[in-house]
Design brief:
By secondary structure, the chain is mainly alpha-helical. The protein has 2 domains: about 70 residues; about 80 residues, no CATH class. It is about 75% helix and about 0% strand. The protein has 4 helices and no strands. Helix 2 crosses helix 4. The longest helix has about 70 residues. The N and C termini lie far apart (about 100 Å).
Length: about 150
């Protein structure tokens, strides 16, 4: 009987100790869950930042390649197919003379600070050509349409 009482006493002591430590353990679990949520959010932010940086890096690399290709030929700034358009212009028969263009070849800015604004406002116009009569306009439109589909 004494042994049984000792076991009951030991069990009660152990149960009391567990009850006292339970709130602390529950708080530790809550803190760990909160830390996990914060870590997951930080990881998501870091992943998004890496992806954004990777996209920016790829965009900058494309811009650099584009600028490199434009360095060799000023016409490249007017689109991928501009060489084809220029060859077609050279082959065509013109009534009032060869078209002038692209018009952007004849424009230069004295103050580069306005480059972006100017390009946004006039960008499409800078890629156009000027002709002297309606028949040449029709010929030029035919060339541009053919080159756009190739």
């Amino acid at each position: 009987m004494t042994r049984l009482r000792d076991l009951i006493q030991k069990h009660q002591t152990l149960t009391a100790n567990l009850r006292r430590s339970r709130p602390k353990l529950e708080q530790t679990i809550t803190d760990a869950e909160a830390a996990l949520i914060l870590a997951e959010a930080a990881n998501k932010t870091a992943t998004e930042t890496r992806l954004e940086a990777s996209n920016l890096e790829a965009e900058q690399a494309r811009k650099i390649e584009n600028l490199k290709s434009q360095t060799g030929n000023r016409l490249n700034a007017f689109g991928r197919r501009i060489d084809l358009v220029m060859r077609e212009i050279d082959k065509a028969r013109w009534i009032a003379g060869r078209p002038i263009g692209p018009l952007g070849m004849f424009v230069s800015l004295t103050d580069p600070r306005y480059r972006d604004t100017f390009h946004k406002q006039m960008g499409h116009t800078l890629c156009q050509f000027a002709v002297r009569n309606d028949q040449d306009r029709k010929t030029m439109m035919g060339i541009l349409n053919r080159c756009a589909t190739q």
